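Here comes my example:
=====
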Amino acid sequence: MIPFNKPHLTGKETDYIRESALSGKISGDGIYTKKCHQYFELKYGFKKAMLTTSCTDALEMCALLLDIKPGDEVIAPSYTFVSTVNAFVLRGAKIIFADSCVENPNIDLNDVEKLITPKTRAIVIVHYAGIACDMDRVMKIASDHNLFVVEDAAQAIDSYYNGKPLGSIGHLAAFSFHETKNIISGEGGMLVVNDERFIKRAEIIREKGTNRSSFFRGEIDKYGWVDIGSSFLPSDIIAAFLYAQIENIDVIQAKRKNIWDRYYAALKPLEVNGQIRLPHIPSYATNNGHMFYVVCSSLDERCDLIATLKENNVMAVFHYLSLHKSPYYSKYHNDRELPLSDMYSDCLVRLPLYFGLEKIEQEKVIDIIKGFYKKKEESPVLINEYQK
């Protein structure tokens, strides 16, 4: 069986975990947590990087830092993982869902502009598959309306917008190091603070609402409870695992991009024939090799393709279901249709992509897909079905 994902080990993870354990401090902000913070701040220019127990927790910290309250509105894509918006729902916000773009699943900024009201506090954008949203336009919209921007960069490590690292542009950003991501720690995430006014409070919120970080730096003679917060610090053991990964990020990225490029070149003729759509990377964006997907012409075709791959021992999977139609939030959504979000929910399928995927295995995946479409007699136009 060719799995959809397989976690990659660089070989140093257990060595660093052992070193962390022997250091006498395996709780948060140990030696490897500090190494990770330094790496991310130096390599990507983040003003402040803070490891968290998950990307979900990083997003919850964003909602706390922005002081989101009941009655506030937050604009976000419907085609995303629940954590993107649940963090703000927990603070009482109303989520205003925007549609996706025609060319890729990223949020439609034309739709965003139409949805802004006096109650809007923030825009949460998702760099789907590590491909950048148009961040100049995002920040212009936010500036014009005095809004905050949160980058959900869960899939976007080591990807760029016009040369700027994703996660370094919005006021706040959140990354994931879940085992399905490019660099991993099993579970794990990171908050990035690019707006200096949030740095001190972010430290407090991450430390259960205490100013303990200032105490450990010798800035105060005792610490206490000064704000709301929670325990968002990961163990240094998790950071040790992660550090072994980031030491090898260039090797990991090169291999993943090579796999991505091979998929794209081999499947491009099917797109030319109008049978599928492949990922679209705008001129301002880069590809970080996080995910390779194809977009089928219908839900039935997508189901048939996944079934055919599974019959041949290949695991390919669909992705998000539109959140505006979710069992929990549909009652809060108005009647606006989001046809492109629904189209991606019905038609997008993700192919196996991980560091250990061998060329012969990838060629098998490609051959199955080509064989599947060779049997089909028609090549329907993709988007029209969802824009009638």
User: Anything to note?
Assistant: The two ends are 39 Å apart (CA to CA). The chain is about 40% helix and 10% strand.
